[in-house]
TrEMBL record, chains A, B, C, D:
Residues 11-71 form the HTH tetR-type domain. This is TetR family transcriptional regulator. It comes from Caballeronia temeraria. GO terms for molecular function: DNA binding. InterPro entries: Homeodomain-like_sf (IPR009057), HTH-type_TetR-like_transc_reg (IPR050109), HTH_TetR (IPR001647), NicS_C (IPR041474), Tet_transcr_reg_TetR-rel_C_sf (IPR036271). Keywords: DNA-binding.
Amino acid sequence: MSELRVKRDPEGTRRRILEAAAEQFTKFGLAGARVDAIATVAGTNERMLYYYFTSKEGLYVAVLEAMYAQFAEREGSLDLSGLQPSDAIRKLAQSIWTHLRDNPQWLNLVNNENLHEGRYLERSSRLRETISPVVDLLRAILERGASEGQFRPGIDPLDFYVTLVGMGYYVVSNRFTLEAFTGRNYAEQRNHESISRLHVDMLLSYLRPDSRTMD
Amino acid sequence: MSELRVKRDPEGTRRRILEAAAEQFTKFGLAGARVDAIATVAGTNERMLYYYFTSKEGLYVAVLEAMYAQFAEREGSLDLSGLQPSDAIRKLAQSIWTHLRDNPQWLNLVNNENLHEGRYLERSSRLRETISPVVDLLRAILERGASEGQFRPGIDPLDFYVTLVGMGYYVVSNRFTLEAFTGRNYAEQRNHESISRLHVDMLLSYLRPDSRTMD
Amino acid sequence: MSELRVKRDPEGTRRRILEAAAEQFTKFGLAGARVDAIATVAGTNERMLYYYFTSKEGLYVAVLEAMYAQFAEREGSLDLSGLQPSDAIRKLAQSIWTHLRDNPQWLNLVNNENLHEGRYLERSSRLRETISPVVDLLRAILERGASEGQFRPGIDPLDFYVTLVGMGYYVVSNRFTLEAFTGRNYAEQRNHESISRLHVDMLLSYLRPDSRTMD
Amino acid sequence: MSELRVKRDPEGTRRRILEAAAEQFTKFGLAGARVDAIATVAGTNERMLYYYFTSKEGLYVAVLEAMYAQFAEREGSLDLSGLQPSDAIRKLAQSIWTHLRDNPQWLNLVNNENLHEGRYLERSSRLRETISPVVDLLRAILERGASEGQFRPGIDPLDFYVTLVGMGYYVVSNRFTLEAFTGRNYAEQRNHESISRLHVDMLLSYLRPDSRTMD
DNA sequence: CATGAATGAGCTTTCATTCAT
DNA sequence: TATGAATGAAAGCTCATTCAT
């Protein structure tokens, strides 16, 4: 917006619309966002929005795809080679949680998508593969840990991954209602670190081979 | 709707509006819900909605209050006396998770409230006390477990509670996006039980006094 | 409103509604006034308003009648006996102008009635006689002045009366737009007195028998 | 309305809306006028009204400005050069009164604005200068008349102007209530001429230098 | 590629009024 | 006599979208 405007700049216009839409959809949801506001923020007019994305919903799907792509790229570039299994888990968790904490708008979009029962996600093509690399990575770590006798065997990597992500997701996504009820703001550095320590502890306690005897 | 309609029934009208609003707000969010649809579902006309709740937002706040009250009532009535500490944790977790899984609309409302950064929750009065009874209960269990040498000492009950709730919350709230990416539907009995088992295991592993040496 | 409320007080209720209606109609006009606001100000409910006055328009007509009656009563009680013709004119004018200045809301009502082309005034019965006593009074003064050689003869008392009233009416009724354009506020004592002096001068100059030669 | 419609005609659309609004606001006042009716009369839809004028009130202010501008233009083009002072007064008065009589809707708008205590007039910018040219003109006439010994000296031109305008304003603006009470219709040619003669006589009688001795 | 003008449907809200007790 | 509950119509305004240039 504040950047220098070129007269005919198709790619730039498209990109600015997408960025503005991302901002508005994450702030207000699909129903709450205004086409008019998106155009204004993008520094163009409503017509262009339809020119490039066909409809409000089309634009919403485009934003969804872009954000998932961005998220996947970030997770895919994680290098855990040469680490002890427990350290690898630690680093993986911290990486994901930090990313979530630093991109809370992203969570709004995901929540919105769940409100719509995933309808728009289905509409998009390239997806499923988005998540698998990280789960594969995790599977490898768990297997290595088990074979080395450090982790308990037989853990489902997908459930474990979902649990790990959920720990970071919940405290960020629900930071406002949580603060209202607990008086504790989990977006604050101190509180976030403190509960993250708890979460790492919990994950690693669970992975210990002897802990299994308890249940 | 299908219930017998009495001609003059202020309490009934009010209640039906509230129920219809709860349904619509949880389905579509504050912005997405239509006043007109709420009135129709409630079997009355739009005017009554303003008669009883002043505005759409006023109605939203009323729904929010009602749902939180309902949630608190349910959690408050939990009886864990006479149970071993670890069994008490198990029962508490199962109770909360079951409740969450059976009331997914409730989570939509909470997510919506987080989208609004908790603005409407602030507007309501009676709150904070809603959560404390359960946390007090949990604190007592943790202390008893620690004094009996079964749990590690020094655990923050609030962080532990948030973690516990979050485990159940995340898989239910995000069931649609999770299914899109993992192919696994956590609303299904089998998957829900399986990951719940993982979560209980994890909580109890963490609580074991010797697990602490690991980190 | 602030007076002591009796439980069953038909006359009081009716009177309070009428007073509240007068206030609201003069402030906002017929279209702008709100039935709901009238009831609130009157300290009763909307239903009573319909009980006593049938409709909003019925109430408006009642207010109109009441205010005209009040105005007529005031003018009718004027005693000009024993005064020199020119002094009688002076006193008559001052009396009317002061009354207008002190009851600007009344003018709003009259303007409103003119906006409606006098439709509601027609609906009322006892009227025409309202004005005649003052005009009769004025006619008598003019005739006496003429027969005594102080006033020019042949003046139409009705036109003269209309002119006289209009002088006071215009500066009060249009005080806001006049101030916006002239910067002079004719509701202020000083300005009102100054222009009133001009008006009296003008009326009396015109009445002088020799002034007629000029035209 | 009945004119030929061009498909894309921004200026025309804007103008037609303004004209329709002027008609409706003068007929029914700000509160009484209907946005829907304005759009229909303008031969467009309600949306365009907001497109060009932001809100109903915005449109009202635009109408106000347009009508004042029109009024000012008309008065500004008056040529009184080469006339005897008394004839100049006569011509000025006749010009203003005729204009008022021929544009009674304009008076409705002014009355409406006074009902609103001039709130919307304030909102507008260019104003004060609207009236001054005519007052300057009048001041010059009065001074010339005084220096030539035809008029009494020391007359305040602003008060004199207000009085002059008021004479024409009152009988037109209040023609309906006046007819209800006096039975005389001042919009009719005969009656209007008759009272106008009285008014001119009165103004000139007052201006005569010797009339001043009377008071 | 870009944009101002135009549209109709639908939104939340308010209105005057009537019903039932 | 008094009042809370109920209503339908319509108000002002906003929405996503399309047309014409």
